[in-house]
Amino acid sequence: MTTETSTKENNSFVLRGIKDVTFEERPVPKLAGPHDVRLQVNYTGICGSDVHYWQHGRIGHFVVKDPMVLGHESAGTVVEVGESVKSLKKGDRVAMEPGVPCRRCVRCKEGKYNLCFEMSFAATPPYDGTLAKYYVLPEDLCYKLPESLSLEEGALMEPLAVAVHITKQSGLKQSDTCVIFGAGPVGLLCCAVAKAFGAKKVVAVDINRERLDFAKSYAADSTFEPSKVSAPENAQRLISENALGVGADVAIDASGAEPSVQTAVHVLRAGGSYVQGGMGRDEITFPIMAACTKELTVKGSFRYGSGDYQTAVDLVSSGKIDVKKLISRKVSFEDAEQAFEDVKAGKAIKVLIEGPK
Ligand SMILES: NC(=O)c1ccc[n+]([C@@H]2O[C@H](COP(=O)([O-])OP(=O)(O)OC[C@H]3O[C@@H](n4cnc5c(N)ncnc54)[C@H](O)[C@@H]3O)[C@@H](O)[C@H]2O)c1
Ligand SMILES: [Zn+2]
Ligand SMILES: [Zn+2]
């Protein structure tokens, strides 16, 4: 152990209870195994789930019982490597995949490690998040950033990996048409991934005009603002206004809103593919007749799995996707709470918090 790892110089942004956050000097985390690396966290994006834990102290059955460090969308710099680490060295800049699976269970062994029951995921209770000076991860969950990518862009690899996984789940093919509900960070990135994967037409749907305007300037070919009519009526107008013929090939929900899910089912062509990426109310009314008679493929999507993070890095480094445009502003670590306020108020797309100096 180095002298550094025995000190308590790990400034962390901690959620103590509902709407109660503070800064704490916590112990510097130690490498848990020979394949681990210790990272100095440079940038962390704020996600809706971080805001939700801060506001409500829970998401579904995940309840914050003990103080927990927030944050899971981070990029950092390697400061210490375990003795078996081969792919990384001190000073390397990496995107940090923030969930460590058990690697032993059936889901892990079949390659779907995002479905691991024993996943230790940053800022999902009881596991601490990445809004700290230091964080330890196994080397294979650190994705080296090419020279051309900044650490700020590195922090955006997390939501981009979410969008990559959702889009892969949809089975979207070259020249497909795709409707994406919700133009927040995840929906916007799904638009970008769908275009990068060869979609002929991507339609972004949102109830917020500003977000739709941004989507149009970012990666959507056209946009749609639903009206207060039934889902089949909105779907009909969506199809005709966007020249989707007999319906879209792929529909993705990245809003978690019941009307979006219903409209998505009605907007699809027979044999189309639907992916549930958004999380909202636990239970909703689902149009089973349309889903059944159109023989839709309906899938969920949870976080990211094998290859998704690397695909995210590759899509940005090859110039196919620009994540810089999503960064609304950066704040210092001391102003972390303000960043949460901004995201909650919908004032920003992505706010990045700089790591403690
Ligand atoms: N599946 C996963 O692993 C995963 C990972 C991260 C986030 N998520 C979920 O993805 C969703 C999107 O995340 P985000 O960070 O972009 O959130 P966000 O809240 O920024 O974006 C959601 C968007 O949906 C829009 N919306 C709300 N009601 C709507 C409606 N009726 N019709 C159309 N649009 C509507 C909102 O205006 C907003 O722009 C959230 O539900 C989040 O929980 C899922
Ligand atoms: Zn997130
Ligand atoms: Zn497992």
Automatic annotation (TrEMBL):
<dbReference type="InterPro" id="IPR036291">
    <property type="entry name" value="NAD(P)-bd_dom_sf"/>
</dbReference>
<dbReference type="GO" id="GO:0008270">
    <property type="term" value="F:zinc ion binding"/>
</dbReference>
<feature type="domain" description="Enoyl reductase (ER)">
    <location>
        <begin position="16"/>
        <end position="353"/>
    </location>
</feature>
<dbReference type="Pfam" id="PF08240">
    <property type="entry name" value="ADH_N"/>
</dbReference>
<dbReference type="GO" id="GO:0003939">
    <property type="term" value="F:L-iditol 2-dehydrogenase (NAD+) activity"/>
</dbReference>
<dbReference type="GO" id="GO:0006062">
    <property type="term" value="P:sorbitol catabolic process"/>
</dbReference>
<dbReference type="InterPro" id="IPR002328">
    <property type="entry name" value="ADH_Zn_CS"/>
</dbReference>
<dbReference type="InterPro" id="IPR020843">
    <property type="entry name" value="ER"/>
</dbReference>
<dbReference type="GO" id="GO:0019569">
    <property type="term" value="P:L-arabinose catabolic process to D-xylulose 5-phosphate"/>
</dbReference>
<keyword id="KW-0520">NAD</keyword>
<dbReference type="InterPro" id="IPR013154">
    <property type="entry name" value="ADH-like_N"/>
</dbReference>
<keyword id="KW-0119">Carbohydrate metabolism</keyword>
<keyword id="KW-0560">Oxidoreductase</keyword>
<dbReference type="Pfam" id="PF00107">
    <property type="entry name" value="ADH_zinc_N"/>
</dbReference>
<dbReference type="InterPro" id="IPR013149">
    <property type="entry name" value="ADH-like_C"/>
</dbReference>
<keyword id="KW-0862">Zinc</keyword>
<dbReference type="InterPro" id="IPR045306">
    <property type="entry name" value="SDH-like"/>
</dbReference>
<dbReference type="InterPro" id="IPR011032">
    <property type="entry name" value="GroES-like_sf"/>
</dbReference>
<protein>
    <recommendedName>
        <fullName>D-xylulose reductase</fullName>
        <ecNumber>1.1.1.9</ecNumber>
    </recommendedName>
</protein>
<comment type="function">
    <text>Xylitol dehydrogenase which catalyzes the conversion of xylitol to D-xylulose. Xylose is a major component of hemicelluloses such as xylan. Most fungi utilize D-xylose via three enzymatic reactions, xylose reductase (XR), xylitol dehydrogenase (XDH), and xylulokinase, to form xylulose 5-phosphate, which enters pentose phosphate pathway.</text>
</comment>
<comment type="pathway">
    <text>Carbohydrate degradation; L-arabinose degradation via L-arabinitol; D-xylulose 5-phosphate from L-arabinose (fungal route): step 4/5.</text>
</comment>
<comment type="similarity">
    <text>Belongs to the zinc-containing alcohol dehydrogenase family.</text>
</comment>
<keyword id="KW-0479">Metal-binding</keyword>
<dbReference type="GO" id="GO:0042732">
    <property type="term" value="P:D-xylose metabolic process"/>
</dbReference>
<dbReference type="GO" id="GO:0046526">
    <property type="term" value="F:D-xylulose reductase activity"/>
</dbReference>
<keyword id="KW-0859">Xylose metabolism</keyword>
